[in-house]
Protein backbone atom coordinates (compact mmCIF):
# COMPACT_ATOMS: atom_id res chain seq x y z
CA UNK A 1 0.00 0.00 0.00
CA UNK A 2 1.07 3.58 -0.53
CA UNK A 3 -0.21 6.41 1.62
CA UNK A 4 2.22 9.29 1.78
CA UNK A 5 -0.20 11.95 3.07
CA UNK A 6 -2.71 10.77 5.70
CA UNK A 7 -6.16 12.36 5.53
CA UNK A 8 -8.59 12.23 8.44
CA UNK A 9 -12.35 12.06 8.10
CA UNK A 10 -12.73 15.53 9.63
CA UNK A 11 -10.20 17.01 7.19
CA UNK A 12 -11.94 15.42 4.22
CA UNK A 13 -15.42 16.40 5.43
CA UNK A 14 -14.31 20.03 5.55
CA UNK A 15 -12.69 19.80 2.09
CA UNK A 16 -15.81 18.25 0.56
CA UNK A 17 -17.83 21.33 1.45
CA UNK A 18 -16.34 22.85 -1.70
CA UNK A 19 -18.04 20.14 -3.77
CA UNK A 20 -21.66 19.29 -4.46
CA UNK A 21 -21.31 15.59 -3.63
CA UNK A 22 -23.15 15.34 -0.33
CA UNK A 23 -21.74 14.55 3.10
CA UNK A 24 -18.92 12.13 3.89
CA UNK A 25 -20.01 8.60 4.82
CA UNK A 26 -16.75 6.59 4.59
CA UNK A 27 -13.05 7.02 3.86
CA UNK A 28 -10.75 4.09 3.00
CA UNK A 29 -7.10 4.10 1.85
CA UNK A 30 -6.52 2.25 -1.42
CA UNK A 31 -4.09 -0.67 -1.26
CA UNK A 32 -2.28 0.05 -4.52
CA UNK A 33 -0.10 2.57 -6.26
CA UNK A 34 3.38 3.93 -5.63
CA UNK A 35 3.16 7.48 -6.98
CA UNK A 36 0.13 9.11 -5.34
CA UNK A 37 -1.99 8.84 -2.21
CA UNK A 38 -5.43 7.42 -3.01
CA UNK A 39 -8.59 6.91 -0.98
CA UNK A 40 -12.02 5.51 -1.68
CA UNK A 41 -14.56 8.13 -0.65
CA UNK A 42 -18.24 7.39 -0.09
CA UNK A 43 -20.68 10.25 0.36
CA UNK A 44 -24.43 10.54 0.70
CA UNK A 45 -24.60 11.02 -3.08
CA UNK A 46 -22.13 8.52 -4.51
CA UNK A 47 -18.73 6.80 -4.58
CA UNK A 48 -15.52 8.52 -5.60
CA UNK A 49 -11.74 8.25 -5.56
CA UNK A 50 -9.66 10.95 -3.92
CA UNK A 51 -6.09 11.39 -5.19
CA UNK A 52 -3.41 13.51 -3.57
CA UNK A 53 -0.55 14.08 -6.00
CA UNK A 54 2.73 13.53 -4.22
CA UNK A 55 5.38 14.43 -6.77
CA UNK A 56 3.78 15.15 -10.11
CA UNK A 57 4.47 18.77 -11.14
CA UNK A 58 1.39 20.93 -10.63
CA UNK A 59 1.71 22.25 -14.18
CA UNK A 60 1.19 18.72 -15.57
CA UNK A 61 -1.92 17.83 -13.59
CA UNK A 62 -4.47 19.60 -15.82
CA UNK A 63 -3.31 17.43 -18.74
CA UNK A 64 -4.25 14.23 -16.91
CA UNK A 65 -7.55 15.43 -15.48
CA UNK A 66 -8.75 17.08 -18.67
CA UNK A 67 -7.72 14.00 -20.68
CA UNK A 68 -9.90 11.81 -18.45
CA UNK A 69 -12.78 14.25 -18.79
CA UNK A 70 -12.34 14.25 -22.58
CA UNK A 71 -12.24 10.46 -22.85
CA UNK A 72 -15.24 10.05 -20.55
CA UNK A 73 -17.23 12.43 -22.76
CA UNK A 74 -16.32 10.25 -25.75
CA UNK A 75 -17.63 7.05 -24.20
CA UNK A 76 -14.41 5.62 -22.79
CA UNK A 77 -15.06 3.98 -19.39
CA UNK A 78 -12.59 6.00 -17.35
CA UNK A 79 -12.93 8.04 -14.15
CA UNK A 80 -14.57 11.43 -14.72
CA UNK A 81 -13.06 14.27 -12.69
CA UNK A 82 -15.53 16.08 -10.44
CA UNK A 83 -15.43 19.87 -10.54
CA UNK A 84 -15.73 21.82 -7.30
CA UNK A 85 -18.15 24.71 -6.78
CA UNK A 86 -15.64 27.04 -8.47
CA UNK A 87 -15.65 24.74 -11.53
CA UNK A 88 -12.11 23.47 -10.91
CA UNK A 89 -10.95 19.87 -11.20
CA UNK A 90 -7.86 20.53 -9.09
CA UNK A 91 -7.80 21.71 -5.49
CA UNK A 92 -5.50 21.47 -2.45
CA UNK A 93 -5.80 19.15 0.56
CA UNK A 94 -3.23 18.89 3.36
CA UNK A 95 -0.82 20.96 1.32
CA UNK A 96 -0.98 18.66 -1.72
CA UNK A 97 -2.75 19.07 -5.07
CA UNK A 98 -5.87 16.92 -4.93
CA UNK A 99 -8.67 15.77 -7.20
CA UNK A 100 -11.90 13.84 -6.85
CA UNK A 101 -13.02 11.46 -9.62
CA UNK A 102 -15.90 9.06 -10.06
CA UNK A 103 -15.36 5.52 -8.83
CA UNK A 104 -15.94 2.78 -11.40
CA UNK A 105 -17.39 -0.66 -10.77
CA UNK A 106 -15.54 -3.88 -11.52
CA UNK A 107 -12.35 -5.69 -10.57
CA UNK A 108 -8.98 -6.27 -12.19
CA UNK A 109 -7.99 -9.73 -13.41
CA UNK A 110 -4.83 -11.48 -12.28
CA UNK A 111 -4.79 -13.90 -15.22
CA UNK A 112 -6.53 -12.46 -18.29
CA UNK A 113 -7.16 -14.89 -21.11
CA UNK A 114 -7.43 -14.49 -24.86
CA UNK A 115 -10.94 -12.90 -24.78
CA UNK A 116 -9.84 -10.35 -22.19
CA UNK A 117 -6.74 -9.44 -24.23
CA UNK A 118 -8.96 -8.92 -27.27
CA UNK A 119 -11.26 -6.74 -25.16
CA UNK A 120 -8.26 -4.68 -24.10
CA UNK A 121 -7.00 -4.27 -27.65
CA UNK A 122 -10.35 -2.98 -28.89
CA UNK A 123 -10.68 -0.60 -25.93
CA UNK A 124 -7.15 0.74 -26.35
CA UNK A 125 -7.80 1.49 -30.02
CA UNK A 126 -10.98 3.37 -29.08
CA UNK A 127 -9.02 5.36 -26.51
CA UNK A 128 -6.37 6.31 -29.06
CA UNK A 129 -8.99 7.33 -31.61
CA UNK A 130 -10.93 9.39 -29.05
CA UNK A 131 -7.74 11.03 -27.83
CA UNK A 132 -6.90 12.40 -31.26
CA UNK A 133 -9.30 15.31 -30.69
CA UNK A 134 -7.84 16.13 -27.27
CA UNK A 135 -6.05 19.47 -27.42
CA UNK A 136 -3.76 19.08 -24.41
CA UNK A 137 -0.09 18.26 -24.87
CA UNK A 138 2.43 16.69 -22.51
CA UNK A 139 5.36 14.67 -23.80
CA UNK A 140 5.47 11.23 -22.19
CA UNK A 141 6.97 12.09 -18.76
CA UNK A 142 8.60 8.65 -18.58
CA UNK A 143 9.98 8.76 -22.11
CA UNK A 144 13.60 8.78 -23.39
CA UNK A 145 14.62 11.97 -21.58
CA UNK A 146 13.53 10.45 -18.26
CA UNK A 147 15.24 7.13 -19.10
CA UNK A 148 18.59 8.90 -19.32
CA UNK A 149 17.97 10.81 -16.07
CA UNK A 150 16.84 7.70 -14.18
CA UNK A 151 19.69 5.57 -15.53
CA UNK A 152 22.23 8.08 -14.23
CA UNK A 153 20.60 8.07 -10.79
CA UNK A 154 20.35 4.29 -10.36
CA UNK A 155 23.66 3.32 -11.96
CA UNK A 156 25.67 3.49 -8.67
CA UNK A 157 23.37 0.83 -7.15
CA UNK A 158 23.82 -1.72 -9.94
CA UNK A 159 26.35 -4.49 -10.40
CA UNK A 160 28.54 -4.71 -13.48
CA UNK A 161 26.21 -6.92 -15.51
CA UNK A 162 23.18 -4.74 -14.74
CA UNK A 163 25.09 -1.61 -15.72
CA UNK A 164 26.14 -3.18 -19.01
CA UNK A 165 22.57 -4.19 -19.85
CA UNK A 166 21.26 -0.73 -18.99
CA UNK A 167 23.97 1.15 -20.88
CA UNK A 168 23.56 -1.05 -23.96
CA UNK A 169 19.78 -0.65 -24.02
CA UNK A 170 19.91 3.13 -23.56
CA UNK A 171 22.33 3.25 -26.50
CA UNK A 172 20.14 0.92 -28.59
CA UNK A 173 17.03 3.01 -27.96
CA UNK A 174 18.88 6.23 -28.80
CA UNK A 175 19.22 4.93 -32.36
CA UNK A 176 15.47 4.30 -32.73
CA UNK A 177 13.30 7.38 -32.33
CA UNK A 178 10.45 6.66 -34.82
CA UNK A 179 9.37 10.29 -35.09
CA UNK A 180 7.15 9.39 -38.06
CA UNK A 181 4.93 6.93 -36.16
CA UNK A 182 1.33 7.90 -35.32
CA UNK A 183 1.28 9.65 -31.96
CA UNK A 184 -1.23 11.03 -29.52
CA UNK A 185 -2.37 10.84 -25.93
CA UNK A 186 -1.53 7.40 -24.47
CA UNK A 187 -2.20 5.82 -21.09
CA UNK A 188 1.38 4.45 -20.88
CA UNK A 189 0.68 2.37 -17.74
CA UNK A 190 -2.26 0.13 -18.65
CA UNK A 191 -1.25 -2.90 -16.62
CA UNK A 192 -3.77 -5.52 -15.53
CA UNK A 193 -4.45 -3.73 -12.26
CA UNK A 194 -5.45 -0.56 -14.14
CA UNK A 195 -8.31 -2.22 -16.01
CA UNK A 196 -11.58 -3.22 -14.35
CA UNK A 197 -13.84 -5.99 -15.67
CA UNK A 198 -17.51 -6.82 -15.22
CA UNK A 199 -19.15 -9.75 -17.02
CA UNK A 200 -15.97 -10.28 -19.08
CA UNK A 201 -16.10 -6.72 -20.43
CA UNK A 202 -13.86 -3.81 -19.48
CA UNK A 203 -15.91 -1.58 -17.20
CA UNK A 204 -13.16 0.89 -16.41
CA UNK A 205 -9.63 2.06 -17.18
CA UNK A 206 -8.00 3.86 -14.26
CA UNK A 207 -4.81 5.64 -13.17
CA UNK A 208 -4.00 8.02 -16.02
CA UNK A 209 -1.23 9.76 -14.08
CA UNK A 210 1.58 8.47 -16.31
CA UNK A 211 -0.24 9.48 -19.48
CA UNK A 212 1.37 11.65 -22.13
CA UNK A 213 1.86 12.04 -25.85
CA UNK A 214 3.82 9.19 -27.40
CA UNK A 215 3.64 6.59 -30.16
CA UNK A 216 0.42 4.58 -30.01
CA UNK A 217 2.37 1.38 -30.59
CA UNK A 218 4.39 2.08 -27.42
CA UNK A 219 1.12 1.97 -25.47
CA UNK A 220 0.36 -1.42 -27.06
CA UNK A 221 3.82 -2.70 -26.12
CA UNK A 222 3.31 -1.70 -22.47
CA UNK A 223 0.11 -3.75 -22.45
CA UNK A 224 1.63 -6.77 -24.17
CA UNK A 225 4.53 -6.94 -21.71
CA UNK A 226 2.07 -7.29 -18.82
CA UNK A 227 -1.10 -8.87 -20.23
CA UNK A 228 0.38 -11.40 -22.64
CA UNK A 229 3.13 -13.14 -20.69
CA UNK A 230 3.18 -16.92 -20.90
CA UNK A 231 3.57 -16.99 -17.11
CA UNK A 232 4.32 -13.82 -15.14
CA UNK A 233 6.25 -15.78 -12.50
CA UNK A 234 8.13 -18.40 -14.53
CA UNK A 235 7.98 -17.68 -18.27
CA UNK A 236 8.04 -14.05 -19.38
CA UNK A 237 7.97 -14.75 -23.09
CA UNK A 238 4.90 -13.51 -24.95
CA UNK A 239 2.05 -15.96 -25.29
CA UNK A 240 1.22 -16.10 -29.01
CA UNK A 241 -2.55 -16.49 -28.69
CA UNK A 242 -3.06 -13.61 -26.27
CA UNK A 243 -0.68 -11.35 -28.19
CA UNK A 244 -2.53 -12.07 -31.44
CA UNK A 245 -5.82 -11.33 -29.68
CA UNK A 246 -4.55 -8.01 -28.31
CA UNK A 247 -3.03 -6.81 -31.57
CA UNK A 248 -5.75 -8.23 -33.81
CA UNK A 249 -8.58 -6.50 -31.94
CA UNK A 250 -6.61 -3.26 -31.86
CA UNK A 251 -5.81 -3.50 -35.58
CA UNK A 252 -9.48 -4.09 -36.44
CA UNK A 253 -10.41 -0.74 -34.88
CA UNK A 254 -7.28 1.29 -35.72
CA UNK A 255 -5.18 -0.45 -38.39
CA UNK A 256 -1.47 -0.54 -37.64
CA UNK A 257 0.74 0.82 -40.39
CA UNK A 258 3.70 -1.06 -41.87
CA UNK A 259 6.04 1.28 -39.99
CA UNK A 260 4.29 0.53 -36.71
CA UNK A 261 4.65 -3.19 -37.33
CA UNK A 262 8.35 -2.73 -38.11
CA UNK A 263 8.80 -0.77 -34.86
CA UNK A 264 7.07 -3.41 -32.70
CA UNK A 265 10.21 -5.31 -31.53
CA UNK A 266 11.92 -2.05 -30.51
CA UNK A 267 8.82 -0.79 -28.72
CA UNK A 268 8.57 -3.98 -26.68
CA UNK A 269 12.14 -3.34 -25.52
CA UNK A 270 11.41 0.33 -24.86
CA UNK A 271 8.40 -0.57 -22.73
CA UNK A 272 10.44 -3.09 -20.73
CA UNK A 273 13.25 -0.57 -20.23
CA UNK A 274 10.86 2.11 -18.99
CA UNK A 275 9.44 -0.11 -16.25
CA UNK A 276 12.75 -1.68 -15.29
CA UNK A 277 14.11 1.81 -14.73
CA UNK A 278 11.10 3.03 -12.75
CA UNK A 279 11.22 0.00 -10.47
CA UNK A 280 14.97 0.41 -9.95
CA UNK A 281 14.39 4.05 -9.11
CA UNK A 282 11.64 3.30 -6.59
CA UNK A 283 13.70 0.52 -4.98
CA UNK A 284 16.99 2.39 -4.60
CA UNK A 285 15.69 5.94 -4.19
CA UNK A 286 12.50 5.45 -2.19
CA UNK A 287 10.36 8.18 -0.71
CA UNK A 288 9.19 8.09 2.92
CA UNK A 289 5.57 7.04 3.23
CA UNK A 290 3.15 5.67 5.77
CA UNK A 291 2.45 2.63 3.58
CA UNK A 292 4.67 2.11 0.55
CA UNK A 293 4.52 -0.60 -2.12
CA UNK A 294 7.64 -1.27 -4.21
CA UNK A 295 7.68 -3.71 -7.13
CA UNK A 296 10.58 -6.02 -7.95
CA UNK A 297 12.78 -4.56 -10.74
CA UNK A 298 14.21 -7.87 -12.00
CA UNK A 299 10.84 -8.84 -13.46
CA UNK A 300 11.31 -6.25 -16.20
CA UNK A 301 15.02 -6.84 -16.56
CA UNK A 302 14.11 -10.42 -17.50
CA UNK A 303 11.47 -9.20 -19.95
CA UNK A 304 13.94 -6.79 -21.52
CA UNK A 305 16.50 -9.56 -21.95
CA UNK A 306 13.98 -11.86 -23.60
CA UNK A 307 12.70 -9.17 -25.99
CA UNK A 308 16.26 -8.25 -26.99
CA UNK A 309 17.32 -11.87 -27.48
CA UNK A 310 14.27 -12.89 -29.53
CA UNK A 311 12.65 -9.96 -31.39
CA UNK A 312 8.90 -10.42 -31.68
CA UNK A 313 6.93 -10.09 -34.91
CA UNK A 314 3.66 -8.12 -34.72
CA UNK A 315 1.21 -11.05 -34.75
CA UNK A 316 -1.74 -9.73 -36.70
CA UNK A 317 -3.94 -12.11 -38.68
What does this protein structure show overall?
The chain is of the alpha+beta class and 317 residues long. The chain has 2 domains: 9-102, 2-Layer Sandwich (Phosphorylase Kinase, domain 1), CATH 3.30.200; 114-309, Alpha-Beta Complex (Aminoglycoside 3'-phosphotransferase, Chain: A, domain 2), CATH 3.90.1200.10. Helices cover 41% and strands 17% of the residues. It has 9 helices and 11 strands. The protein has a 5-stranded antiparallel sheet with strand order 1-2-3-5-4, with helices on one face. Helix 4 (144-154) packs antiparallel against helix 5. The chain is globular and about 55 Å long.
Q: Could you write a compact summary of the structure shown?
A:
The protein has 9 helices and 11 strands.
CATH superfamily of the largest domain: Aminoglycoside phosphotransferase (APH), C-terminal lobe
Whole-angstrom Rg: 20 Å
Helix content: 40-55%
Number of helices: 9
What does the average pLDDT come to?
94
**Which sequence of SSEs, written as H and E, runs from N to C?**
HEEEHEEHHHEEEEHEEHHH
Q: How many separate structural domains?
A: 2
CATH class of the largest domain, named Alpha Beta
- Number of beta-strand segments: 11
Helix and strand content put the structural class at alpha+beta
CATH architecture annotation name of the largest domain: Alpha-Beta Complex
CATH topology of the largest domain: Aminoglycoside 3'-phosphotransferase, Chain: A, domain 2
**Uncertain residue ranges:** none
Strand order of the largest sheet: 1-2-3-5-4
Distance between the termini: 41 Å
Tertiary shape: globular
Amino acid sequence: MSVFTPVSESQLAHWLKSYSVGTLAALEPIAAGIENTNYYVTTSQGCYVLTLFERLPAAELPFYLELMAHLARHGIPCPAPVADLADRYLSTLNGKPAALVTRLEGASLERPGTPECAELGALLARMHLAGRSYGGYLENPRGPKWWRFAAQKVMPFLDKSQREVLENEIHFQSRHRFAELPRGAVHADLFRDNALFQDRRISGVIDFYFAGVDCFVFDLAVCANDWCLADAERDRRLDAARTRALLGAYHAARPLSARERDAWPVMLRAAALRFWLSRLFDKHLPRPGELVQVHEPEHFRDILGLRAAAPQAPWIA
